[in-house]
């Protein structure tokens, strides 16, 4: 499989065409910056990547207008400070009429994220509004004849899991025992996906001596075998996804699909942010893109394509927190690539000169023995 993917990438590089990424790959389009280009140019960059799916963190009118007739699917977000009011069915209907109906179907809105990482955000007050708001929004979509086109879910941090290793031990945190079944029941009833933000980078940063870098970067390695299932894992992201699947199964929900709404790797970080550099970011995202091109599933669900959204399109200079938070982008605000992701051309508007190979972004070829102690 690895040789096949390598040959596929080289073939497209040499032929001078854009890599036709899988339909199961999207890129998050955050806008927390004061130097970012307008949505029209962001769209051109997404197209330069061959990307047909994106996610925004609000319902920005200019962005939704710009995405009209582009054939790019888009997930919109009800911000954490907004969605509690939408537990009221009347308010939810007004919100959908104002923020969704005017743009659909010209703008291909395919999902509504109700909040972001609400279950681990530190505000217990928000928790009681999540599912009621989702129900009200879904009912509003039904009333307007849009529910068959737009699914409703809420992205959760991987921190919702009490255990994630081995994957078969996956279970939700005890304090979520009341709310999580309500969420899963809604997702099951509406045939929506469980959305998870999963970052192997965080696990590596916190425990670099015990977690092999090649395992988290999708590089060749011996991987690990879940002794309870005999399933073999050669990368951490798939193990994290399957842990969430097992966690849902423990609550009696076995058929809910999973979508990775965020994953990525920072190209810069503070001194204590081990592994946050251009080389690792390039390897992680390029290897993940190659996996998506092959339409892979996880070991637990090998025949089901895993939909994944990379974070993020741009470096965002106004994001709070550590340096890494402002350096997850594939592109700088001026439209040049932070590192090569296998692109042979970019929109003329940015006049970007990209090298397909460089010493700092070559994929490692060695094999690592994996020893798990986390």
Features:
9-stranded parallel sheet, disordered C terminus, globular, 374 residues, disordered N terminus, 31% helix, 10 helices, alpha/beta, two-stranded antiparallel sheet
How is this structure best described in words?
With 374 residues, this protein is of the alpha/beta class. 31% of the residues lie in helices and 13% in strands. The protein has 10 helices and 13 strands. Strands 5-4-3-2-1-13-12-9-6 form a 9-stranded parallel β-sheet. A two-stranded antiparallel ribbon has the order 7-8. It has a two-stranded antiparallel sheet with strand order 10-11. The radius of gyration is 20 Å and the shape is globular.
Question: Layout of helices and strands, plus pairs?
Answer:
Elements: H1 2-15, E1 25-28, H2 39-48, E2 53-55, H3 61-66, E3 73-78, H4 89-99, E4 109-114, H5 124-143, E5 151-153, E6 155-157, E7 161-163, E8 171-172, H6 179-190, E9 194-197, H7 200-206, H8 213-216, E10 224-226, E11 231-233, H9 236-250, E12 258-263, H10 278-293, E13 307-310
Parallel strand pairs: 1-2, 1-13, 2-3, 3-4, 4-5, 6-9, 9-12, 12-13
Antiparallel strand pairs: 7-8, 10-11
Helix pairs in contact: 4-5, 5-6
Uncertain residue segments: 1-20, 344-374
Strand order of the largest sheet: 5-4-3-2-1-13-12-9-6
Radius of gyration: 20 Å
The proportion of strand residues reads: 5-15%
Terminus-to-terminus distance: 28 Å
Largest sheet, strands/sense/barrel: 9 strands, parallel
Order of helices and strands: HEHEHEHEHEEEEHEHHEEHEHE
Number of strands: 13
Calculate the mean pLDDT score and round it. Answer: 88
**Assembly annotation:** single chain
Net shape: globular
């Amino acid at each position: 499989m690895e040789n096949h993917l390598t040959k596929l990438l080289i073939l497209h590089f040499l032929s001078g065409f854009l890599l036709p990424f899988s339909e199961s790959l999207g890129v998050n389009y955050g806008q927390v910056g004061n130097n970012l280009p307008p949505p029209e140019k962001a769209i051109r960059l997404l197209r330069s990547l061959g990307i047909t799916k994106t996610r925004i963190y609000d319902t920005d009118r200019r962005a939704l207008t710009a995405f009209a007739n582009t054939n790019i699917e888009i997930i919109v977000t009800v911000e954490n400070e907004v969605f509690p009011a939408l537990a009221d069915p009347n308010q939810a209907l007004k919100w959908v009429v104002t923020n969704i109906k005017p743009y659909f179907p010209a703008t291909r809105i395919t999902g509504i994220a109700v909040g972001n990482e609400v279950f681990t955000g530190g505000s217990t007050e928000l928790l009681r509004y999540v599912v009621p708001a989702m129900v009200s929004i879904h009912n509003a979509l039904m009333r307007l004849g849009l529910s068959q086109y737009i699914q409703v879910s809420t992205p959760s941090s991987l921190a919702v899991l009490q255990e994630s290793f081995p994957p078969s031990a996956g279970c939700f945190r005890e304090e979520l025992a009341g709310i999580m079944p309500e969420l899963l029941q809604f997702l099951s009833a509406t045939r929506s996906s469980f959305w998870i933000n999963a970052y192997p980078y965080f696990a590596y940063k916190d425990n670099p001596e015990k977690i092999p870098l090649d395992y988290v970067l999708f590089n060749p390695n011996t991987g690990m075998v879940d002794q309870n299932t005999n399933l073999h894992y050669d990368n951490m992201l798939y193990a994290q996804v399957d842990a969430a699947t097992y966690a849902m199964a423990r609550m009696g929900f076995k058929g809910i699909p999973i979508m990775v709404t965020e994953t990525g790797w920072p190209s810069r970080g503070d001194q204590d942010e081990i592994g946050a550099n251009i080389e690792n970011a390039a390897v992680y995202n390029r290897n993940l893109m190659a996996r998506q091109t092959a339409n892979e599933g996880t070991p637990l669900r090998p025949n089901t394509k895993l939909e994944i959204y990379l974070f993020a399109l741009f470096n965002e200079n106004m994001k709070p927190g550590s340096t890494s938070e402002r350096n997850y982008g594939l592109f700088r605000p001026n439209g040049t690539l932070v590192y090569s992701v296998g692109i042979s051309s970019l929109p003329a508007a940015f006049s970007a000169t990209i090298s397909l190979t460089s010493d700092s972004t070559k994929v490692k070829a060695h094999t690592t023995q994996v020893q798990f102690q986390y």
